[in-house]
Amino acid sequence: MRVTIRLFARLRDLAGAGELVRDVEGPATVQSVWKGLVAEMPSLGEYERTMSVAVNADYSRMSASVNDGDEVAFLPPVSGG
Amino acid sequence: MRVTIRLFARLRDLAGAGELVRDVEGPATVQSVWKGLVAEMPSLGEYERTMSVAVNADYSRMSASVNDGDEVAFLPPVSGG
Amino acid sequence: MSLLAVTPDPLDLPALIRSVSGSRAGDGAVASFVGLVRDHNQGRRVSFLDYEAYEPLAVRALTRIVDEIAQAWPDTLVGVHHRTGRIEIGEASVIIVVVSPHRAHAFAACRYTIERIKQIVPIWKHEHFEGGDVWLEGATADPDDESARQTAYRIACA
Amino acid sequence: MSLLAVTPDPLDLPALIRSVSGSRAGDGAVASFVGLVRDHNQGRRVSFLDYEAYEPLAVRALTRIVDEIAQAWPDTLVGVHHRTGRIEIGEASVIIVVVSPHRAHAFAACRYTIERIKQIVPIWKHEHFEGGDVWLEGATADPDDESARQTAYRIACA
């Protein structure tokens, strides 16, 4: 199945792209999508303890399941305001 | 000596005037000016415990002395904002 | 534009914000408060308010409040304009703007200002409602009343 | 004008105040907060900021904050606009407006809003300073973190 990965702020800079489309093995979770991403780009790994995640533009958890066509986002600590 | 008395809000309405000029006996205090005013217009007396006073547009006390040409103001409880 | 004013003219919040923040490009936090004339009060349908001020003493009292704020929150700058005369429903009677590098200070000083205005600034609301009119009376003004000042400070959550 | 927005356009505080207070002639208290881009940060001379947002989630997070406020202060109405993209020194990055019949509620909900924005809204500052640039990172966003929410509530002096 295919998922869209969204990366923001410094995660986007580290990856060199804000949007990636990847084929992943099912059944997938946010965690498994992340593991695949870090295997591809190890420098992203430093965010594992501080980032938040979202599925289809809603906050989610690493354990959440991911379905075909989902948008999975990885978010560095926020700094709005 | 001559003083100008300023009255505001409901005190002004009760007196029918916001500014009165009165000749008073020296040595005068805010208290003696007030007493003369209440003798003239007893309805003002209800404000004696709740009003504030000012001399020459600066907050003052009933015991403060009043000199010739001073402006003495009697102020109901405030309600700005 | 003067940072402190008691004026019959309509109040202009953006202009006051520009005046207060204009010279302080290092300050990121702007807290403001606007008091609007309400269409009801204590069960009465309000038609309009007429504000009376003892203008020179009112400006002096505002200056005193600003001095108190400079002591409590030295990194703030405050602007206050209070309107007088007839003010219609929905129009502003008072605007307060505080800038600071710290939003906690901006909020605290802004809240403190409106509390102190209600305590010590010689301004009175004459309420005209359906069926009559009444002078509103709140606090006996006493700028030297330290317990009133402490109450305002506590409410400001300093 | 929408009460909640994440937009690349310059922010308009008077327009947001009109939108928030326009339909509420019974409410006399308007508290607002404006965050301005500062010319320095942590010893660096800032040239400008570039704000990035995950826009649909940012609007959802703002909606969540407004829902929290409706629970805590049911008599308030809140508007929040957050700007994205390049913002120059002295320009506003965020504006918050709260109206209420009670100034205590207006101030508390306004303060709560900015604290919660910094906790859970997916927006990031890219600071461009003399000699380089850096992404600023604050809180790990977790809307379900009840202790963070309680901290914001406590800071709001509710």
Descriptive tags:
heterotetramer, A: 81 residues, alpha+beta, Ubiquitin-like (UB roll), two-stranded antiparallel sheet, 7 strands, C: Aldehyde Oxidoreductase, domain 3, five-stranded antiparallel beta sheet, globular
What is the makeup of the main sheet of chain C? 5 strands, antiparallel
Question: What share of residues of chain C is helical?
Answer: 25-40%
CATH topology of chain A: Ubiquitin-like (UB roll)
Number of domains of chain A: 1
Largest interface: C-D, 32 and 32 residues
> Based on helices, strands and strand pairing, what is the structural class of chain A?
alpha+beta
Précis, in short:
By secondary structure, chain A is an alpha+beta fold.
Protein topology:
The complex is a heterotetramer, with two copies of chain A (81 residues) and two copies of chain C (158 residues).
Chain A: E1 2-7, H1 9-15, E2 19-23, E3 28-29, H2 30-40, E4 52-55, E5 59-60, E6 65-66, E7 71-75
Parallel strand pairs in A: 1-7
Antiparallel strand pairs in A: 1-2, 3-6, 4-5, 4-7
Chain C: E1 4-7, H1 13-21, E2 29-36, E3 40-41, E4 44-53, H2 55-72, E5 77-83, E6 85-88, E7 92-100, H3 103-120, E8 123-129, E9 132-135, H4 146-155
Parallel strand pairs in C: 1-5
Antiparallel strand pairs in C: 2-7, 3-4, 4-6, 4-8, 5-7, 8-9
Explain what this protein looks like in three dimensions.
The complex is a heterotetramer, with 2 copies of chain A (81 residues) and 2 copies of chain C (158 residues). Chain A has one domain (2-75): Beta-grasp domain (Ubiquitin-like (UB roll)), CATH 3.10.20.30. Chain A has 2 helices and 7 strands, in the order E-H-E-E-H-E-E-E-E. Chain A has helices at residues 9-15, 30-40; strands at residues 2-7, 19-23, 28-29, 52-55, 59-60, 65-66, 71-75. In chain A, the strands form 2 sheets. Chain A has a 5-stranded mixed sheet. In chain A, strand 4 and strand 5 form a beta hairpin. In chain C, helix 2 runs antiparallel to helix 3 (103-120) and helix 3 (103-120) runs antiparallel to helix 4 (146-155). In chain C, strands 3, 4, 6, 8 and 9 form a 5-stranded antiparallel sheet that branches. In chain C, strands 1-5-7-2 form a 4-stranded mixed sheet, sandwiched between helices. Chain C has helices spanning 13-21, 55-72, 103-120, 146-155; strands at 4-7, 29-36, 40-41, 44-53, 77-83, 85-88, 92-100, 123-129, 132-135. Chain C has one domain: Molybdopterin biosynthesis MoaE subunit (Aldehyde Oxidoreductase, domain 3, Alpha-Beta Complex). Classes of the chains: A alpha+beta (81), C alpha+beta (158). At the C-D interface, helix 1, strand 2 and helix 3 of C face helix 1, strand 2 and helix 3 of D. Strand 2 (29-36) of chain C pairs antiparallel with strand 2 of chain D, so a sheet runs across the interface.
